[in-house]
Every structure is written in C-alpha cells, then in structure tokens.
TrEMBL record:
SUPFAM superfamilies to which the protein is assigned, alphabetical: Glyceraldehyde-3-phosphate dehydrogenase-like, C-terminal domain, NAD(P)-binding Rossmann-fold domains
PANTHER family on file: BCDNA.GH03377
Record-linked Pfam families: GFO_IDH_MocA (PF01408), GFO_IDH_MocA_C3 (PF22725)
Entry keyword annotation includes Oxidoreductase: yes
Lineage: Bacteria, Pseudomonadati, Planctomycetota, Planctomycetia, Pirellulales
Alphabetic keyword roster: Oxidoreductase
Protein name: Gfo/Idh/MocA family oxidoreductase
Length: 319
C-alpha cells in the first residue's frame, strides 16, 4: 500500500510517518505541506521520495493508493472528499469531522467510489483494553457500575508565538472534548454500546475560546455510567481509566502504559499488556488488511460518526 500523508505536524513527526514506514505492507511514498522549506526538511528527515506543496498535486499522483489526512479538523471533510474522488483510500485523523453531518457525507462518498474510509482512533488496538473487555464479559468484575476517566493534552504555542489550531473553534470544532475526549468516547462505545443519556459542563477562559475544562457523564443502555474529565494544559496527563464493578475494580492508569491492576477480595493483581511501541502501527496494518480482505477496518467511518454524535450531544447539553 503506497501512502501519501497530508499534513506534517506534531503527530505525524512523532508517530505517523514512522508508523507507515514500519507497518507491514506499507510504503510512505509522499507527504504534503504548504511551507516549502518545512516540506523539504521533513522529506529529508524521513527519507521520503516525494513532497507536494498542495493536496491536489498529491491526490493527482496515480501511484499513491491511500492517504493519511492529518490536518485541522475543519479540513477533514473537503480533503477526504477530494482524496476519495481521486480514487484514494482514506485514513483520517480524529475526530473525524466537525459534526456528524460531515461524517455522514464522508461515509457516503467512500461508498460511492468503493474506497475504504477509516479514522485514526488507535486505542482499540491496545492489548490492555482487550483484556479489560475479557474481564467485563466473563463477569470477573461482577456487574459494571461506573467508569472514571481523566485525560489532558498540553497546549504549546507555535514558533511565532501564536496559539495552535486546536484552540481555534473554527478549525478544531472544540477543545479537549474533541481532542482527547474523542479517544475515550470511542473506547467507551466499544465497551458499553449505546449512550442513552448525556450530562455535561464545559468551562472557558473567555467566551470566544474553546473549552479548557470539560466534565461529562455518559449513561449507557446497560446502566453503566461513565464520568469523564477532559483538560487542556494540565502539568501532567493523568491518562486514568478505572472501571468499578460489584466484584472488583480494574485500574488501567495510565492507559498508555498497558498496566492493569485488578482489585478484588484476593487483593491487587498487577498485569502488563503493553501497546505497540508506535501506537499507530497496528491501526495502519489493520487498515491495509481491511482493504486486502475487502472488509471494514476495525475503526471505520461509522465508528467515527458514532463518536461525533456523542460529542455533539455533550456540547448541546453543556450549552
């Protein structure tokens, strides 16, 4: 699978480019960035043969099979539609789009041209979450009562001192609910299914900014309640996930570590289920396998839509 990456920001430099180059069955053929000097530097740093200053130029490259879109959220819809129209498969960064209507347009467009559409929620590939699912399904936690999650993301100013796009409501669509909360919503939907009720409070430093603190509670059809705190700019990311049941507690904090502490009448049992060293590699390998096997990827456009639907309900209740 010959890939092009649209956008060369922080997440691409940290993980995505290396993941495409490492993933079985993938080759990173090209990247796209408007800044010519930054584009040439990125291509040199990762030994990428082709660099394009515009998305249209990259989409016109007939040797590119799939595109990873890693741009601000407001660009996901137009760039996904353009890539699909050019015959490319698309793996788009999370959250999938600004709102559910845009997600549905992307899904419909992929169906129309018979191309695969995926969303870059990589936590479903964490072995520790698979283990948590086993504990829930086998009743080792008893009846699950509640989930508690706290997560945060740092806000780093751009080199020129300006604020990053993630705090711009027009570009990012929201604050930490969109940015880091979306990952946790995806996990919760996979574990517990349909959300039947939402309660939310969001705080802003000023009326024209995105929220910097958000607390929301999701109630699921089975009765489980999940309380989630999402933050921008805490000193450290708690990255906590704790599941409380009638027979035991599963503590997966910090989630990215792969550690699980099972607390029950026998005491504390510590397990280790480490994720891949590069979180994005299993995501990309599954996406490629899905195309080869003619099946939906584990994280499909429909999954991305479901997350955006919950996010919309959170913001609606907070207002």
């Amino acid at each position: 699978m010959r890939w092009g990456i649209l956008g060369c920001g922080d997440v691409v430099r940290k993980r995505v480019a290396a993941a495409v180059q490492t993933a079985t069955g993938s080759e990173l053929l090209a990247v796209c960035r408007r800044d010519d000097a930054a584009l040439r530097q990125f291509c040199a740093d990762f030994s990428i043969p082709r660099g394009y200053p515009s998305a249209d130029q990259m989409f016109a490259d007939e040797e590119i099979d799939a595109v990873y879109i890693a741009t601000p959220v407001d660009m996901h819809l137009p760039q996904t539609l353009a890539a699909l129209a050019a015959g490319k498969h698309v793996l788009v960064e999370k959250p999938m789009a600004l709102h559910p209507g845009e997600c549905q347009m992307m899904i419909d467009a992929a169906k129309e041209v018979n191309r695969t559409l995926g969303v870059a929620y990589y936590r479903p590939f964490y072995p520790v979450l698979n283990r948590l699912g086993e504990l829930i399904q086998t009743g080792q936690l008893g009846e699950v009562l509640a989930v508690q999650i706290v997560c945060s993301a740092p806000i780093t100013l751009n080199e020129d001192g300006s604020a990053p796009w993630r705090v711009n409501a027009q570009q990012g669509g929201g604050g930490p609910v969109m940015d880091v909360g979306s990952h946790r919503i995806d996990v919760l939907l996979r574990l517990f299914g349909e959300v039947v009720d939402v309660r939310a409070v969001c705080s802003r430093k000023s009326p024209d900014e995105v929220e910097n603190v958000a607390n929301f509670v999701l109630q699921f059809a089975g009765g489980v309640q999940a309380s989630v705190t999402c933050l921008f700019d805490a000193v450290q990311d708690p990255d906590s996930l704790v599941v409380v049941g009638t027979k035991g507690i599963a503590d997966l904090s910090p989630l990215n570590s792969g550690r699980l502490i099972l607390r029950n009448e026998l005491g504390d049992q510590v397990e280790q289920h480490s994720p891949h060293a590069n979180f994005n590699v299993p995501l990309i390998e599954d996406f490629v396998a899905a195309i080869e096997e003619d099946r939906p990827p584990l994280v499909s456009g429909v999954d991305g839509l479901l997350v955006n639907e919950v996010i919309e309900r959170i913001y609606r209740d907070a207002r």
